[in-house]
Amino acid sequence: MRQLFVAGNWKMRLNGRQSIRLAGRLRERVGDVTDVRLAVCPPFVYLKSVAELLSECSIDVGAQNMHAEEAGAFTGEVAGPMLLDVGCRYVILGHSERRHVFGETDEFINQKVLKALSLGLEPIVCGGETLSQREAVQTESVVSDQLKSGLAGVTAEQMAKVTIAYEPVWAIGTGRTATPQQAEDVHALLRALLTEMYGADVSADTVIQYGGSVKPENAAELMAMPNVDGALVGGASLEAASFEGIIRAAQSARK
Questions:
Q1: What is the DSSP string of 123-172?
Q2: Interval 103-115 mean pLDDT
Q3: What CATH number does residue 244 fall under?
Q4: Is the pLDDT confidence value at 23 over 80?
Q5: CA-wise closest residue to 163 among 101, 113, 103, 97
Q6: Cβ distance 230 to 4 under 8 Å?
Q7: Full domain range(s) for residue 128
Q8: d(CA 27, CA 57)
Q9: N or C, where is the chain less crowded by C-beta within 10 Å?
Q10: For residues 207 and 83, what is the distance between their CA atoms, to the nearest angstrom?
Q11: Is the separation of the CB atoms in 209 and 163 below 8 Å?
Q12: Is 49:19 a contact under the CB 8 Å cutoff?
């Protein structure tokens, strides 16, 4: 059975002192959890200090983005080798805010995915539909195109290092959450596509997280669905107690 994976995306929040305090509290509360895979993704400038603090526990560290090139004249960007240098295991790619605020295309996201894998980073590849797309009954086509484009050129062997995150844009930071069945329907669609692309074994082993206003109150019901393999958590990951609540929900979801 797939091990559930809960990752916290801190986005552009928390200063250095707050980041260290939160990481320290998480180490104390859930640093010994091994039955659920855990990660936190702080802002770039705090990655090294958080990674050092968490180095002796079970919580891994990821970045929120990276450039598709390893080095070059890309002012303000961060390269994959830099992320490895400061202790990252994961990198979030294709988050809706990168797509819709910064205009990143499926093709550019795919370049990042391929680069991350070539360097040994494990990408969390995001996708999801907007409210207007859902209301126009375009969810299936949108997420299918995002998945196929994002994984273009990724081999079946490399898929062992890839996590997929379904994050309906209409549920991110809005307080609205997809119902467990809505989430399950899209996750099942994504898994069926993975079967077409890579075969049943790879599909069965691939972790598909849900992201979008996940809280301790709804986490257990979401992660009890057979194809929802954890959560990519935004606001609720900024407080140790609420993030712990989601992790505890994951621990009990499939027992």
A1: EEEEE---HHHHHTT-HHHHHHHHHHHHTTT--TTGGGG-EEEE--GGGS
A2: 98
A3: 3.20.20.70
A4: yes
A5: 113
A6: yes
A7: 5-253
A8: 7
A9: C
A10: 22
A11: yes
A12: yes
Q: Which of 97, 122, 129, 167 is catalytic?
A: 167
Decide if 95 is catalytic.
Answer: yes
Angle at alpha carbon of residue 47, lines to 165 and 252, rounded to 5°: 45
Structural domain count of the chain: 1
What tokens were used for 69?
């090139």
The pTM (predicted TM-score) of the whole model is 0.97
Give the distance, in angstroms, between the CA of residue 140 and the centroid of all CA atoms in the same chain.
Answer: 20
Q: Quick check: 252 pLDDT over 90?
A: yes
pLDDT for 173-212, tens place per residue?
787 778 999 999 999 999 999 999 999 999 999 999 999 9
3-class secondary structure, 47:
helix
CA distance 125 to 93: 5
Catalytic residue among 95, 97, 104, 187: 95
- Name 165's bridge partners: 126, 209
CA 84 to chain centre: 17
What amino acid is encoded at 31 in this protein? G
Report pLDDT digits (tens) over 155-175.
999 999 999 999 999 887 787
Amino acid, res. 114: L
Q: Which two tokens stand for residue 195?
A: 């079967």
Residues 34-81 pLDDT 10s: 999 999 999 999 999 999 999 999 999 999 999 999 999 999 999 999
